[in-house]
Write a structure and sequence with these properties.
The structure is a single chain. This protein has 341 residues and is mostly helical. It has 13 helices and no strands. Helix 4 packs parallel to helix 6.
Length: 341
C-alpha cells in the first residue's frame, strides 16, 4: 500500500518541482532607508505606539506613566505583593547596609555616604524605574576605581574635604553620562560588548577587590593606592611586622561564616534566608564582639561614630574649576562606562 509510486497526470507538476517567483522589493531612497535603520536601532520597542489614536487627555496620562512608571503599577498594587516586597526588602537591606559601608571604604569616603548610596538609588528607581529585576546601587569596581583615580590627584587623608568634593563631582558626571544614554536611547551599545570581555572584566574586578580586602584583614594602616597584583602583594608582605593577628582571626572567622551559610542555603533552598541574613548578622555580631572586648585597643580598625541626621544638599560642593575639573570628569565618565558592563 505505501510502496506504490504515485504517477501524476500529464500536464501537472509535482509539488516539490513547482517554482514560485518572489519579486525583490523596490529600492528605497537613502534618507528613508536611513530613517528606518535609525528607528530600528534607537526605538526597537516603538515607545510611541501607545500614543497613536488617543485623545489629548489620554496621551497626557500615558506620557506621565511613561516617565513615572509607578503611576502605572501602583493602582494595581495589592497587600499580597506588599508582604512579598517587605520580606525581599528586609533581605536586601541586610546585605546592602554592610555592603554600602564597605564600598565607601573602597572609595576612601566616609561610611555614611555608603549608607546613603544603599537606600537613595532604590527609592528613586522605585518611582522612575521600569524593570522589576534590575539591581540599583554602587558597585565594588566603581568604588575602587573612583578611589584609585582620585587618590592620584588628592590625598584623602591630608585633604578630605577636597577629596569629598571631587567624589561628588565625579559621580555627577557619571550620572550625566548614564542619563544621556537613557534619554538618547543608546542602551544598544551594550550589545556590542562580547561575553568573553564581560567575563574577563568581572573576573579581574573580583580579583582586584579581593586583594584590596587584605588591608583590613591584616589590620594594615598604610597600604598602596595601586590596584595591580604585584603592588598589592608587595605592600602586604613588606609589612609583615605590622600584621595584627586579632584582625586576621576576626576577618577569616566571619569569612568562613559567610561561606558556610551560603553553602548551607545552596544545599537547603528553603533556608535561602540564612545566607541572605548572614551579612547583617556578621555586622551585628562583629559590632558586639568589638564593643565588649574593646578590640580597637588591640589593633582592630573600627568605623567609629556615624554622622547623625540627613546630609545637606551637596550641589554647592561640586568642583567645576581647574586644575581638578579634568580629573573629576575623567573619573566620572570612566566609572559610568564601567557601570555598563
Amino acid at each position: 500500500m505505501g510502496t506504490v509510486e504515485y504517477t501524476f497526470p500529464q500536464g501537472v507538476e509535482e509539488p516539490h518541482r513547482r517554482h514560485h517567483t518572489v519579486e525583490a522589493p523596490e529600492p528605497q531612497p537613502f534618507l528613508k532607508s536611513l530613517q528606518y535603520s535609525v528607528k530600528e536601532t534607537l526605538f526597537p520597542d516603538d515607545p510611541f505606539r501607545q500614543f497613536k489614536n488617543q485623545n489629548t487627555s489620554r496621551k497626557v496620562v500615558l506620557g506621565f506613566q511613561y516617565f513615572f512608571p509607578i503611576c502605572e503599577w501602583a493602582p494595581r498594587y495589592t497587600l499580597k505583593l506588599f508582604k512579598s516586597d517587605l520580606i525581599a526588602g528586609i533581605t536586601i537591606a541586610s546585605l546592602a547596609i554592610p555592603q554600602g559601608i564597605s564600598y565607601a571604604k573602597l572609595a576612601n569616603l566616609p561610611p555614611i555616604l555608603g549608607l546613603y548610596s544603599s537606600f537613595v538609588p532604590p527609592l528613586v528607581y522605585a518611582v522612575l524605574g521600569s524593570s522589576r529585576d534590575l539591581g540599583v546601587g554602587t558597585t565594588a569596581v566603581g568604588s575602587l576605581l573612583t578611589g584609585a583615580m582620585l587618590s592620584k590627584e588628592v590625598n584623602a587623608e591630608k585633604d578630605p574635604k577636597l577629596y569629598l568634593h571631587l567624589a561628588f563631582t565625579a559621580t555627577f558626571f557619571a550620572g550625566v553620562l548614564e542619563a544621556s544614554l537613557g534619554i538618547f536611547r543608546l542602551g544598544f551599545i551594550v550589545d556590542f560588548l562580547s561575553h568573553a570581555t564581560i567575563v574577563g572584566f568581572m573576573g579581574g574586578a573580583a580579583t582586584v577587590v579581593s586583594l584590596q580586602q587584605l588591608k583590613g584583614i591584616f589590620g594594615l594602616k598604610h597600604f598602596t593606592e595601586a590596584t595591580d597584583v604585584i603592588s598589592v602583594m608587595r605592600s602586604v608582605f613588606s609589612q609583615t611586622h605590622q600584621w595584627r593577628w586579632e584582625s586576621g582571626v576576626l576577618g577569616c572567622g566571619f569569612l568562613f561564616f559567610l561561606l558556610s551559610t551560603r553553602y548551607f542555603s545552596t544545599k537547603k533552598p528553603k533556608f535561602f534566608w540564612v545566607a541572605a541574613m548572614a551579612p547583617l548578622t556578621s555586622v551585628i555580631l562583629g559590632s558586639l564582639l568589638v564593643y565588649f572586648t574593646h578590640a580597637e585597643r588591640h589593633g582592630v580598625q573600627v568605623i567609629g561614630n556615624l554622622k547623625k541626621g540627613l546630609n545637606p544638599i551637596s550641589v554647592s560642593d561640586l568642583v567645576f574649576t581647574s586644575p581638578y575639573m579634568s580629573t573629576a570628569v575623567k573619573t566620572g565618565l570612566i566609572t559610568g562606562i564601567i557601570a555598563l558592563a
